[in-house]
Amino acid sequence: MIRRSKRPRPPDEVAFPVTPFLDMAFQLLAFFILTFRAPSPETKLDLYLPSAPIALPDSPRGVVKAPSLDDPDLETDLLVHAEADDKGSLASLRLGETPVDGVGDLETRLRKYARLIPGKNLRVRLVAPDRLRYEEAARVIAASASAGVASIRLVEPKGERR
Amino acid sequence: MRRRVRGSAPDNFELNLTPLLDVVLQLITFFMMLVHFGTRIEGETRAVRLPVTAAALPAGDLGLDRLVVAVDREGRLLAEDQTRTGQAAASWWTDQAKLRREGRRILGGPGDELPTVVVIRADRDAAYGSVRKTLAQAQATGFAHFSLVVLREERP
Lengths: 162, 156
Known about the structure:
The complex is a heterodimer of chains A (162) and B (156).
Chain A: H1 18-35, E1 42-48, E2 77-84, E3 90-95, E4 98-100, H2 102-116, E5 123-127, H3 134-146, E6 151-155
Parallel strand pairs in A: 2-5, 5-6
Antiparallel strand pairs in A: 2-3, 3-4
Chain B: H1 18-34, E1 66-71, E2 77-79, E3 82-84, H2 86-107, E4 114-122, H3 128-140, E5 143-151
Parallel strand pairs in B: 1-4, 4-5
Antiparallel strand pairs in B: 1-2, 2-3
């Protein structure tokens, strides 16, 4: 008969080696502190402007109609007209020929319109006078991009063409 | 005079590391959470105050081939630490396009359109016309991809 050997008794205290864990934690902390860059509020508006421009939409008088929601063949090229006052601030905005109440309204209308033509790329052409402040123009571009417009082009207004 | 007998120090002095470890792990978590939000677009300059746009726009990647320029409030082109206007700006764009085309020719890239992303930091008070003309100058030389740098909110 084999005698059962006595198992060694576990030690009274189990010591967890914290030091290597702490070393690694400090190394990670040093890495993140050294590579840390404060959050930036910067973002970007992407524009694709090929040198060969896409043809303007057909229109009998060369003017794009305001989008009609009853039209079964909805336009994918929209014109946004911005007017500036003497100081260069945004005086008025039009989507096609329809006046809109500021940049927020433009974004809402474009967003709704983009939902009506799923799968199609909505393109916007911004027609604005050169004296308009860039910040105002950037807001219009940002609102269009935020509404889901695929392509934004900047058009020189007719009166200012050389 | 009687001497006061001090109590003897304990044999085993153990530093309690647990709170220290807690703090360190919390700091690591904090930095790990913020590490993705620290994306900055290069070319920051004090000469230009970027416009603020209220619209929510995601900041995607810019790609490797980039050309960063700025437009100051007078509408002048700031590139490579120099200010250019008019014909000087136009010839600078031509040189940049030529340089990149040469690179593409060596590498055998397709098409005439340059894949370079032109990053433009334009001042908020610049005239829209000057920014549009800068874009048109670049566009005329073959650049087609542009990124206008804006702020989501005013800097603190």
